[in-house]
Amino acid sequence: MEQTDTSRGEVLAASDEQPLAPLLAEPDQWALFLDIDGTLVDLAETPDSVVVEPGLTDTLQALSHRLGGALALVTGRALPYADQLLQPLALPIAGLHGAERRRADGSVDAVTPEPSFVTLKRSLERVTSDWDGVIIEDKGGAVAAHFRQAPERQASLEAVMAAALSEAGPDYSLQRGKMVLEIRPARANKGSAVEAFLSEAPFSGRKPIAIGDDLTDEAMFRFANEAGGLSIHIGEAADTAAQFTLPSPDALRQALRRIATE
Ligand SMILES: O=P(O)(O)OC[C@H]1O[C@H](O[C@H]2O[C@H](CO)[C@@H](O)[C@H](O)[C@H]2O)[C@H](O)[C@@H](O)[C@@H]1O
Questions:
Q1: 44, 138, 166, 244: least buried by Cβ within 10 Å?
Q2: Bridge partners for 75 per DSSP
């Protein structure tokens, strides 16, 4: 152990798999909920340039099998993009920060954007079209404005997104993330998505282990803690509700691989 600090979880060494041990000891008692960006895959300069490590999909498939199918992805990405990233897997998944969901039986709750939201997305693209480095990511029922490659545009984007949010109305909320501002459906979050999975087979009756790296993951950390489960924050020390912190996506991938092949 390197350090203990209750405001950022118990900070673990890269090789410390202690919080994941229940997956090996009691695989029929636990369900695993995994964020994607910054957790399973390293962050990249743009949304489209992330790299899925060879073997990661095999690891996830094996873990899902070990857990009787009780493994779900919980991401800010749109479902089709996440599926494309992790093909050929088609795991249970919550997308758009919990607003859309594919259950273990394959049924999907999708988000269909209203015409006014489509107009809003086009307007954001127009307003920022000559802002070098700013990327507008159209996610169907949500939209993200990325400034990783143009940090000097953050203040202007804050203003543009605040105006867009007020135009979108009370059914939407602003989601802050790593070098990104998003407008997403307000009716769900990652905590409510985990709760919904746990009300269905094969997740029901199990305790959740929630793993993520960003502000959006705090809702599932809080839910997992309240449900008697475990929560793990990935990456540099941060103010988090998670009980544990692992230093990097690579440390997590290695730990998951060891558990999957044990
Ligand atoms: O909930 P997640 O699976 O972690 O998704 C959160 C957002 O991730 C993506 O943006 C982040 O990753 C990009 C690629 O590494 C990076 O360039 C960007 O700065 C990050 O904010 C994704 O593009 C968003 O749609 C997700 O909501």
A1: 166
A2: none
Among residues 188, 229, 194, 233, which one has the least CA distance to residue 215? 233
Using the mean position of ligand 1's atoms as its centre, give its distance from the Cα of residue 77 in Å.
7
Residues 7 and 104 in one domain: yes
Closest ligand 1 atom number to CA of residue 37: 4
Strand duo 93-95 + 100-102: pairing: antiparallel
The answer to whether residues 248 and 234 touch, using CB atoms and an 8 Å cutoff, is: yes
**Residue 6 clears pLDDT 70, i.e. is over it:** no
Q: Which residue minimizes the CA distance to atom 20 of ligand 1?
A: 178
- Structural domain boundaries enclosing 149: 115-185
Q: In the chain, what are the helix, strand and coil shares in percent, each to the nearest 5?
A: 35, 20, 40
CATH number at residue 201: 3.40.50.1000
Query: Do 68 and 143 belong to one domain?
Result: no
CA 154 to ligand 1 center in whole angstroms: 16
Q: Which residues are catalytic?
A: 35
Residues 70 and 129 in one domain: no
Which residues have CB under 6 Å of ligand 1?
Answer: 35-38, 43-47, 50, 75-77, 137, 139, 144, 146, 148, 177-180, 182, 214, 216
Residues 101 and 212 grouped into a single domain: yes
**What is the Å distance from ligand 1's center to 177 Cα?**
8
Say how many domains are in the chain.
Answer: 2
Question: Could you report the per-residue pLDDT of 67-111, keeping only the tens digit for each?
Answer: 999 999 999 999 999 999 999 999 999 999 999 999 999 999 999
